[in-house]
Amino acid sequence: MESPEADHQASLRLRGQAEIWRHMFAFVDSLALKCAIELQIPDIIHSHGAGRPITLSQIISCIDNAPSPDISYLERIMRLLVRRNIFSIDHPSDGGEPLYGLTHSSRWLVNGSDEYTNLSSLYLIETHAYLVGSWNFLSPSVKEGSMAFEKAFGKRSVWDLASQDNRFNKLFNDGMACTGRILIREMVAGYKDGFDCLRSLVDVGGGIGGMISEIVKSYPHIKGINFDLPHVIATAPVYDGVSHIAGDMFHQIPNADALLLKWVLHNWDDEACAKILKNCRKAIAKEIGKLIIVDVVLQPDGNELFDDAGFASDLQMMVNTLGGKERTELQWKKLLEEGGVVIAPTNPEYSISELTHQIQLTRPTIAFATSHTSHKLPLNLRTILIDSLEFSTLFTQHSGGESDVVVNQSDIAAILYSSGTTDGFDTVRSLVDVGGGTGGAIAEIVKTYPHIKGINFDLPHFVATAPDYDGVSHVGGNMFESIPNADAVFMKCILHDWGDEDRVKI
Ligand SMILES: C[S@@+](CC[C@H](N)C(=O)[O-])C[C@H]1O[C@@H](n2cnc3c(N)ncnc32)[C@H](O)[C@@H]1O
């Protein structure tokens, strides 16, 4: 019997390991949901089922441009997303096909809902291959003090990339525009007085003008100006009460009573922000001039719903902009003061609390997939074959032998296939690790059970680089042709790499 303290420590170790697995697979959650969005599954459920759950066959029949759809792939993707509470599943009592529905999360990914804004395009841009690709350069950028984005794409910014790639440009602008609708609802409710006194407003770096058009819709007395780079303005739709102006905010910003900067300053380092703010000061009316900044305020000890997203977004800025960052309230104050913006807490026109307020309003627009992967897969060598329970059936059906399903004390599904005894390693004289890589696992087994003759079996190029281990011989070959003889075969995470037909051959 282990002591309670030893048990506690073992449990902490296991939890720690589970946490690492969760992080390792966090991208799976994020990209599985991206796939569901690309296939428009939230929209399909919303429109086809009029909001009611529908079957997988109904979903798949509505997917556009799918000449030979694979329902088993989709079923597995949905299984994960149901676990993550992105979709719901109902199992009808009559044994009919399961029904998939929307949840409070996936409703944020549909078109045409009154209560939820569609964040799909924002999700697709934040997980776009360009933006995700530059993350591979994060550690070199830390070591060399260089920009990850430049390492990935050369000396250019994300805006340069958008100007050269029309599809990316459209996706980026749509992604940004969709957040305007959420924000304006909150602004209309909470910032009414702020707009009442304005005659003109420029949205600086306003993208295709979604935000300013929503403001002008609610405050038709305001003359709206959407200001952005030429390649963005070229694709902007026409909106009543909004004129589009192409230009460069580092050069000159159109004059108006007030300027709006939403998610602009966080793209730039302090030096670049100072230049933007200087041009803002020149552009706003002296008497009632106002700068409305909508950005994240990082809360270092914050435990609110979107605080984590702020820190994730900070790293997204670090990786995908040339010096951008999210800022704490202190950093904002410093930046604005140095940029010559008067922050008078008593004057709501410029108070930092107003800034904070605006920022809080924008928080719900930050959509990042959070993952709750709870993958239990301890590296427990007491099991002979670690994979999943479903193989048990496969073995008994196709091998003519017996299969014992052992659930060990960590609730891990482990299958011990044997033609006779199932006593574990004690009775095994020779053991071949099929697909054993460079032999690390079999070497550990042989260290603990030195009576076992260990054989590490893998493709020749793997075995060629394998180190020498006492008691282990390396054999190069192909498991689909033949496997070296031994008392027992060990396969760790092999069968799950293959389809059923190949598993049967193995
Ligand atoms: C993160 S996006 C925010 C867009 C929009 N404000 C929103 O939140 O929906 C930053 C915007 O700044 C624009 N931008 C970048 N450099 C600029 C420049 N030098 N002058 C004007 N706009 C610029 C980009 O084209 C992009 O539309």
Automatic annotation (TrEMBL):
<dbReference type="InterPro" id="IPR036390">
    <property type="entry name" value="WH_DNA-bd_sf"/>
</dbReference>
<feature type="domain" description="O-methyltransferase dimerisation">
    <location>
        <begin position="21"/>
        <end position="111"/>
    </location>
</feature>
<keyword id="KW-0949">S-adenosyl-L-methionine</keyword>
<dbReference type="GO" id="GO:0046983">
    <property type="term" value="F:protein dimerization activity"/>
</dbReference>
<dbReference type="InterPro" id="IPR016461">
    <property type="entry name" value="COMT-like"/>
</dbReference>
<feature type="domain" description="O-methyltransferase C-terminal">
    <location>
        <begin position="423"/>
        <end position="505"/>
    </location>
</feature>
<dbReference type="GO" id="GO:0008171">
    <property type="term" value="F:O-methyltransferase activity"/>
</dbReference>
<keyword id="KW-0489">Methyltransferase</keyword>
<keyword id="KW-0808">Transferase</keyword>
<dbReference type="GO" id="GO:0032259">
    <property type="term" value="P:methylation"/>
</dbReference>
<dbReference type="InterPro" id="IPR001077">
    <property type="entry name" value="COMT_C"/>
</dbReference>
<protein>
    <recommendedName>
        <fullName>O-methyltransferase</fullName>
    </recommendedName>
</protein>
<dbReference type="InterPro" id="IPR029063">
    <property type="entry name" value="SAM-dependent_MTases_sf"/>
</dbReference>
<dbReference type="Pfam" id="PF08100">
    <property type="entry name" value="Dimerisation"/>
</dbReference>
<dbReference type="InterPro" id="IPR036388">
    <property type="entry name" value="WH-like_DNA-bd_sf"/>
</dbReference>
<dbReference type="Pfam" id="PF00891">
    <property type="entry name" value="Methyltransf_2"/>
</dbReference>
<dbReference type="InterPro" id="IPR012967">
    <property type="entry name" value="COMT_dimerisation"/>
</dbReference>
<feature type="domain" description="O-methyltransferase C-terminal">
    <location>
        <begin position="135"/>
        <end position="340"/>
    </location>
</feature>
